[in-house]
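User: Here's a protein and a ligand (iron/sulfur cluster). What would the complex look like?
Assistant: Let me lay out the input and then the predicted complex.
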Amino acid sequence: MPKRNDLEQKALQFVMNTGFEGVLQSELWRNLGASSREGSRISIKLENKGLIRRAKELCDGRWTYRLYPKRLPASIESISDCPCLMCQDNPRCDPSSTISPKNCERLTDWILLIAKGESGAVGDS
Ligand code: SF4
């Protein structure tokens, strides 16, 4: 039987890999070879740590939970149009220098486009 911390780590990785679809709690434990009791305990622990979100769902007439990752790993596509990638000032850009992301208009404009949903980065993860 795998150790609890190993299971917790594997469970988190599994949930993160399901992305926006999430995974039914029972499906997850079946894949990891854990008991439902242990699985419930781990999913509550991951939720309490703020790593996953549990959403109640009716499945085959029984209430269960679908588990979603709270954060998804960033994809390369999500930053493909970031101005820093092609910026000539990149080697000298540093938060402690005059060329800094803190006061960069190009970076600010790009972030604002993402916030408005007008960047190619939105919805790529
Ligand atoms: S923050 Fe601005 S200056 Fe710095 S690398 Fe990015 S685009 Fe260039």
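Summary: The chain has two domains: 4-69, 76-116.
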